[in-house]
Amino acid sequence: MSRFPRWWFWAAVLVPALITVVGLTLQAGSIERQVQAEAHKVLPGAELVVSGRDVVVSGIPVEQITATESRLEAATGVRSVSVVDPELTSMSMVFRTGEVVVTGTTEQQSWREQFIRKLTQHTHGRALVDETKTQRGTDFPIKTKAAEALVALITQQPEDMTVTIEARKVTIAGVVPDDNRRKAIVALMKRLFGDTTVVDQTKTKE
Question: 0.85 cut: is pTM over it?
Answer without folding.
Answer: no
